[in-house]
């Protein structure tokens, strides 16, 4: 699959084939070209960018389509629905509970939680485009799913209403860690539980150009917080931390496995699958290549916290 292979090759120094890009290129080399084969279970491709759309909107739509093809429909985190089930399974959810869901989701996480646990879900989304997609996808769940807006720079949710919360990298849209967790605390009932997944600053060296490019691709206006400062903010907001897990190894493994699977699907489907969608694919590949590189080097980390609100 020349387009993706060439895009990944741009990020490997001459003579080196290691790390995320090297693994993907090696996998691509081993896969046979089957242009006439039918790729089973392929997700719908992005809309035709030749349609009358703003170029930035066209690119965003293309990248969204590739992200959902990677992680499953409506899911925006590696591992897809299985990872959502694993994270939400840590919370005591039932048809009698209401969950505050915020962060990376386009309806897949909310739908998975309602289907598997029966909980009511208040899904907060700062991006109007994603909010619209979520509302359409969650329509079959009726009143059990509610999509609401929020502003990362001025976070606020319905106060003292939700039984528990699941936050999937809420800082990806901006804002600060301390204000976000304070807003979550104010939105929860006493003794509510929180599961939070978020990127933190690591102890390893980071190339500033690589870090800046990753921040731009993810839409993060500022670097992630330090781990100690993040955990201090959780405690200051009233949360008692029970578990602080290093989630980076699991995510890195999911990223590699899923990209290898996508390469295989694209090889099976032939070059026509990339028509009018290659730019979105290249940017999405670059984003995950850089995230994998930063996580692997320790320049950034990924933490999963499980905490209870004590007040």
UniProtKB/TrEMBL annotation:
SUPFAM superfamilies associated with the record: S-adenosyl-L-methionine-dependent methyltransferases (SSF53335)
InterPro entries xrefs: SAM-dependent_MTases_sf
Record-given protein name: Uncharacterized protein
């Amino acid at each position: 699959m020349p387009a993706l292979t060439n895009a990944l090759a741009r990020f490997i120094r001459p003579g080196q084939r290691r790390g995320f890009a090297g693994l993907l290129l090696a996998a691509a080399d081993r896969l046979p070209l089957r242009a006439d084969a039918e790729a089973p279970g392929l997700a719908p491709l992005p809309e035709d960018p030749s349609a009358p759309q703003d170029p930035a909107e066209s690119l965003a739509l293309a990248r969204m389509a590739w992200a959902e093809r990677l992680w499953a429909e409506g899911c925006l985190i590696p591992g897809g629905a299985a990872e959502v089930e694993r994270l939400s399974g840590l919370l005591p959810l039932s048809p009698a509970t209401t969950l505050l869901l915020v962060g990376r989701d386009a309806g897949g996480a909310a739908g998975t939680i309602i289907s598997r646990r029966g909980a009511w879900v208040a899904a907060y989304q700062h991006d109007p485009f994603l909010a619209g997609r979520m509302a359409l996808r969650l329509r079959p769940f009726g009143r059990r799913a509610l999509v609401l807006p929020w502003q990362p720079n001025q976070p606020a949710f319905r106060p003292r209403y939700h039984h528990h919360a699941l936050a999937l990298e809420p800082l990806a849209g901006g804002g600060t860690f301390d204000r976000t967790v304070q807003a979550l605390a104010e939105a929860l009932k006493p003794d509510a539980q929180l599961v939070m997944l978020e990127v933190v600053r690591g102890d390893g060296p980071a190339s500033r150009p690589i870090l800046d490019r990753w921040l731009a691709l993810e839409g993060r206006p500022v670097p992630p917080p330090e781990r100690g400062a993040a955990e201090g903010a959780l405690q200051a907001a009233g949360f008692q931390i029970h578990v602080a897990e290093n989630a980076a190894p699991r995510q890195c493994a999911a990223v590699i496995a899923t990209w290898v699977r996508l390469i295989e699907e694209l090889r099976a489907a032939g070059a026509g699958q990339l028509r009018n969608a290659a730019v979105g694919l290249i940017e999405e590949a670059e984003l995950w290549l850089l995230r994998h590189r930063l996580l692997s080097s320790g320049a950034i980390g990924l933490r999963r916290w499980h905490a209870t609100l004590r007040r």
